[in-house]
Design brief:
Distance between the termini: 48 Å
Strand content: under 5%
Mean pLDDT: 91
Largest sheet: none
Order of helices and strands: HHHHHHH
Low-confidence stretches: none
Number of strands: 0
Helix content: over 70%
Structural class: mainly alpha
């Protein structure tokens, strides 16, 4: 695995670019459209999909330029350090993001639920039972069944753990210069991530059609779908990142000494794995 790309002796600063503002317009359309869509607006669906297409097109051009800069040797060692710190802080922000939802679940189960079961609240809701999962006072939420750990969540856990092994195998192969093994390991990781998402789609269909479990099913339904849904979104993004890295490896990019794009994607994938282990225990078993 050889390459003629060398590190620049200076700190490369890109010229002013339109990409951030163009991408933000697409994200604004995506977020606004999604909000309108879930509230029953047909226009929201088209705005959301248009925002997704706009964002993907903008990122394709933007990342293509960044890849060109890296492959032409513009990035110095200090730029590489900046990339590492940026990715580390990004993952830290994601930890805080999921931490907020885990905290909401903890508050609902361990603080709010016992409080609602106090004797004072019996005057308001005499038939209310402060047990988890809970649909609230009678009549407010349609009855539903909870999602157990078997078989889909357990299968998905095995899939993600296996994907952590394959991406680590690919990383070690990259450091040792075995490009063929890198391709095999990355392809296996992306495939496992795709299978995971297929199972999660099936799980959601089962939840809606067979369990009557919806986003509106009280605090249980909202926290279940927010946590698992956002995690599924992160799995999708991680798989896309690794797929881009896979294409770059097949094109001859990266060397054993210079492959942070792969390392950053691998860091992100391991983060996704760890979050799922927490979800598997807290959501499906507790």
């Amino acid at each position: 695995m050889s390459s003629s790309v060398t590190k620049a002796p200076y700190y490369y600063v890109p010229a002013p670019t339109r990409h951030p503002i163009v991408t933000s317009i697409g994200l604004l359309g995506f977020g606004s459209g999604a909000s309108m869509w879930v509230n029953g607006s047909t226009l929201g669906m088209f705005l959301c999909l248009a925002g997704i297409v706009w964002t993907i097109a903008s990122l394709y051009v933007w990342f293509g330029e960044a890849i060109g800069e890296a492959e032409s040797g513009m990035n110095s060692v200090n730029v590489d350090v900046s990339y590492r710190w940026s990715m580390a802080w990004f993952i830290f922000s994601e930890i805080m993001f999921f931490g907020a939802f885990f905290s909401a679940l903890f508050y609902a189960r361990s603080i709010a639920m016992p409080w609602l079961g106090d004797i004072d609240n019996k005057l308001l809701w005499p038939d209310f039972a402060a047990t988890w999962p809970n649909a609230g006072p009678a009549g407010l939420v349609e009855s539903f069944k909870t999602m157990g750990p078997w078989p889909i969540p357990t299968i998905n856990t095995i899939l993600l753990l296996a994907s952590g092994v394959t991406v680590t195998w690919a990383h070690h192969a990259m450091r040792e210069g075995h490009r063929k093994q890198v391709i095999q390991g990355l392809a296996a990781t992306v495939a496992l991530g795709a299978i995971f998402m297929c199972f999660q789609v099936y799980e959601y269909i089962h939840a809606y059609s067979d369990l009557n479990l919806k986003l509106s099913s009280g605090i249980y339904g909202s926290t279940f779908f927010m946590l698992t849904g956002f995690h599924g979104f992160h799995v999708t993004m991680g798989a896309i990142m690794l797929a881009v890295v896979l294409v770059r490896v097949m094109k001859g990019h990266f060397t054993p000494e210079n492959h942070f794009a792969f390392e950053g994607a691998a860091w992100y994938w391991h983060f996704v794995d760890v979050v799922w282990l927490g979800l598997y225990v807290v959501i499906y078993w507790m």
